[in-house]
Amino acid sequence: MSAESLNTGKTYGGSSVGGGPTHQETVPDVDVVKIAPVPAEHLVEEGTPDLSVFDAKTVERAEAIVARYPQSRSALLPMLHLVQSVEGRVSQAGIHFCAEQLGLTPAEVSAVATFYTMYKRKTCGEHLVSVCTNTLCAVLGGDDIYRRLGEHLGADGKRLGHNETAGEPGAPGSITLEHAECLAACDLGPVIQVNYEYFDNQTVDSAVELVDKLRNGERPAPTRGAPLRDFRTAELELAGFFPEDEAEYQAGVDGPSAAVETLRGAKLAHERGWVAPAMPDEAPLPEVQKK
Amino acid sequence: MSTPNKPAPVTPVLTKRWLSPNSWSIRTYEQLEGYTAIRKALKGTPEQLVELVKASGLRGRGGAGFPAGVKWSFMPPNEDKPHYLVINADEGEPGTCKDIPLMMADPHSLIEGCIIASYAMRAHHCFIYVRGEALHCIRRLNAAVREAYDAGYLGKDILGSGYDLDIVVHAGAGAYICGEETALLDSLEGRRGQPRLKPPFPAAAGLYAAPTTVNNVETIASVPFIVNGGSDWFRTMGTEKSPGPKIYSISGHVTNPGQYEAPLGTTLRELLDMAGGMKDGVPLKFWTPGGSSTPMFTAEHLDVPLDFEGAAEAGSMLGTTAVMVFNETVSVPWAVMKWTQFYEHESCGKCTPCREGTYWLTGILERMVAGEGTESDIDTLLDICDNILGRSFCALGDGAVSPITSGIKYFRNEFLALCEKNRKRNPELVGAQPGVQS
């Protein structure tokens, strides 16, 4: 069959519907990256990236993650946290690194990395500030806090938006701001996390003071969590690697958690002498017939 | 004040160690009866433990309320394939904040529960899937696991019983959907967290297609107490069909928000009493019994017993007993819009009703709240909800419609008032022929 006869539009049933050149054939190629509504450079990179940023220690850690699981692919989520601890984001290099370690294709790793909120495509600041703006925190002031922090951290009259960074990403004092979904601290709302450590019962003023301190290089203590470090250290812990120095490790574990709110029920019971019914002295396991 | 057999208003069981200094350390835990239950459990058989948990009537604390012992009994008796226990610690349902304080304050109770449950289900590998944002819990759990290995409660031949178990603490990466058990398993396998079609249920083909049980943190942390106290003791609290104590998380416009562990069946009136009443005396308008996915209640429902049956009979669900309390200053359509934005963001995209439905619901609600809505939008909302409820792949879709349908049910006037504003701005052109205005 000649090319010409292909375009006559005659189908098996004799209809001309669907015949002729397709629309795509009649228009010039479109540069989709150029017209993308959001800048897409960070999504498309040609060639195999340079993996030298991941040193021998990182490789060793990646192997340690794989060893935790019966099947290696289970290591992918912690390994993405690991590459994020190195680069402050999940880059194309990070994706290729994970793929190489796990025998997956970069496409398979990309599909996973883009699904989860905590994997960042742009390099994060020294600190990640997450403001809960879900309904309950929002009612208590979370929306106002998020708006005010955006204004406060913005420059040239422009508000800092979701997942945007004030300062040079990664440089000391740089802060990435995001609004977060429910952070499971509703009795302590409105709540903020810095590098996933809790700063509970915030106000607009306390939140502004908090980010000012972070910008000045201070490390204010969270209300619940370990002494504050930076985003990348938090990511390393999420990958399952904790401080090797025993004192530092213990200081992290022993960071505060006993919020007044958390203990309220237990305290009320203690004050009023309320206890659960006493357990019997003997409570043998039930007899079951062997099948 | 209380009848002789009625338990106290607050019954600290899971929360009883929380006031102790360094309650998260193995030292404190062992001083307060910690790791006594596994000694007793390991002397019994797996069948006895399943029977015990069945007899206790313990129901899943993650929201669905499925009887834990029955779930355990679905695990095959043979070990043709490895068995797995997976703990769902991906707490993220809006309003829910019970597992995170539990894991921070008393991680060893979860670890001990994991050992007993794994033994009962013949699992030698247990994973605790913790929400990534809960870093301090991950830290505490890792420390607890390390302490438990050092003390011989984990690893090979635990306490000379011949039983082996390894526990791995696994961090998630920020996806609400991973609280759905099959999405959690996919995520734990290193994939996008999207729910699986059931059947097969996890007990037949779960993690790595092997027999798996997924249980909530609070459920498993209850197990050591049941082993020590027995099923009759557990049933001295709560109701016939919903026995035991439960951590109620009270948040929002109350004087003293916090965690209150009370027998199942406690009412909001009683909880408010413990929590010092409504903040500044501003009256109650609406509340959720167990997170945003459970249809809202109003002041009419103050005396509904908050157990699985009571909440269902009154037209909602017990969920996670995340009691979010909102006073009269809060607009219901606004609150519903905020929750719907959440579901839209967290919809995993696998099934069409949820992916498309939550998108359109958000758009319509945003328009209504901006004062651009019309009365027919209310019908459209309900119509979309109808097409999501029961038709989406997993319960996320069902949860997404709960605030909308219950909000319109109890507060339709507020939705109408938003349309009224719009109507005033665009008055009908009296006498004009439809379709001929330029």
From TrEMBL, chain A:
Gene3D superfamilies: Glutaredoxin, NADH-quinone oxidoreductase subunit E. This is NADH-quinone oxidoreductase subunit E. Its cofactor is [2Fe-2S] cluster. The lineage of its organism: Bacteria, Bacillati, Actinomycetota, Actinomycetes, Pseudonocardiales. Residues 11-21 have a biased composition (Gly residues). InterPro entries: NuoE_dom (IPR042128), NuoE_N (IPR041921), Thioredoxin-like_sf (IPR036249). Residues 1-26 are annotated as: Disordered. Keywords: 2Fe-2S, Iron, Iron-sulfur, Metal-binding. It comes from Actinokineospora fastidiosa. PANTHER family: NADH DEHYDROGENASE [UBIQUINONE] FLAVOPROTEIN 2, MITOCHONDRIAL, NADH DEHYDROGENASE UBIQUINONE FLAVOPROTEIN 2, MITOCHONDRIAL. Signal peptide: none annotated.
Automatic annotation (TrEMBL), chain B:
Its EC number is 7.1.1.-. It holds the Pfam family Complex1_51K. InterPro entries: ComplexI_51kDa_subunit (IPR050837), NADH-UbQ_OxRdtase_51kDa_CS (IPR001949), NADH-UbQ_OxRdtase_suF (IPR011537), Nuo51_FMN-bd (IPR011538), Nuo51_FMN-bd_sf (IPR037225), Nuop51_4Fe4S-bd (IPR019575), Nuop51_4Fe4S-bd_sf (IPR037207), Soluble_ligand-bd (IPR019554). NDH-1 shuttles electrons from NADH, via FMN and iron-sulfur (Fe-S) centers, to quinones in the respiratory chain. It comes from Actinokineospora fastidiosa. SUPFAM superfamilies: Nqo1 FMN-binding domain-like, Nqo1 middle domain-like, Nqo1C-terminal domain-like. The keyword ATP-binding does not apply. The gene is nuoF. This is NADH-quinone oxidoreductase subunit F. Its cofactor is FMN; [4Fe-4S] cluster. The keyword Transferase does not apply.
